[in-house]
TrEMBL record:
It comes from Sinomonas halotolerans. It comes from the Bacteria. The keyword Iron does not apply. Belongs to the intradiol ring-cleavage dioxygenase family. It is an enzyme of class 1 (oxidoreductase). The lineage of its organism: Bacteria, Bacillati, Actinomycetota, Actinomycetes, Micrococcales. Keywords: Dioxygenase, Oxidoreductase. InterPro entries: Intradiol_dOase_C (IPR000627), Intradiol_dOase_core (IPR015889), Intradiol_RC_Dioxygenase (IPR050770), Protocat_dOase_a (IPR012786). One of its GO terms (molecular function) is protocatechuate 3,4-dioxygenase activity. This is Protocatechuate 3,4-dioxygenase subunit alpha. Its EC number is 1.13.11.3. The gene is pcaG. Pfam families: Dioxygenase_C.
Length: 205
């Protein structure tokens, strides 16, 4: 009698082969997986480094213990220096000329990030200029939304509705520090003492 198996019979895979055949599903892409696809060349350069009026926004992303998070991803959205909200496309292919107001960077191994951009102008007279920030990181089921304000216009900061609704200790987590070289230093803490204020946009999917 022949010992050949029928063509339709499938032999079971070993455990090792089964494991190697599995691929992440959309529901499993929360971890560091997004870092393989979302970062792009010059993602943090909203303007070329060293260009007139350019400024660096930099800092560190930390967890509830104050330890750096090495695989977070940040996005920023902002108006230009005159307070105009850009309506231009082309962020994924930087041409060195078009300012789209949007950038994306993965943080470094020490949890640090750097954007090269311009100081945003107020979108309306008397309003406090700020940059919108989105945070993606390990363990986050949903991205986090926050803001970073420029520190100079203290009157506008005092009149900002969001900042005015916060206690002083919480308010300071949203205001950058202007360093001697003109750059903006601002750290993001996801939990614990001095946790950054995060925003909930009600009614937004």
């Amino acid at each position: 009698m022949s010992t050949e198996l029928p063509m339709s019979t499938e032999l079971p895979m070993s455990t090792e082969k089964q494991a190697s055949a599995l691929v992440p599903t959309p529901g499993q892409t929360i971890g560091p997986f997004y870092g393989y696809a979302l970062p792009f060349e010059k993602g943090g350069e909203l303007v070329p480094p060293g260009s007139p009026n350019s400024v660096q926004l930099h800092g560190t992303v930390t967890d509830g213990h104050g330890d750096p998070i090495p695989d977070a991803l940040l996005e920023i959205w902002q108006p230009d220096a005159q307070g105009n909200v850009p309506q231009r496309t082309g962020s994924l292919v930087r041409d060195g000329y078009a300012f789209t107001g949007w950038g994306r960077v993965p943080v470094g191994n020490t949890g640090t990030f750097v954007f090269t951009t311009v100081n945003p102008g107020p979108t309306e007279p008397g309003k406090a200029p700020f940059i919108s920030v989105v945070v993606f990181a390990r363990g986050l089921l949903n991205r986090l939304f926050t803001r970073v304000y420029l520190p100079e216009d203290t009157e506008a900061l005092a009149n900002d509705p969001l900042l005015a609704s916060l206690e002083p200790a919480r308010r300071k987590t949203l205001i950058a520090e202007r360093l001697a070289d003109g750059s903006l230093h601002w750290d993001i803490r996801l939990q614990g003492e001095d946790e950054t204020v995060f925003l909930d946009y009600q009614g937004q999917a």
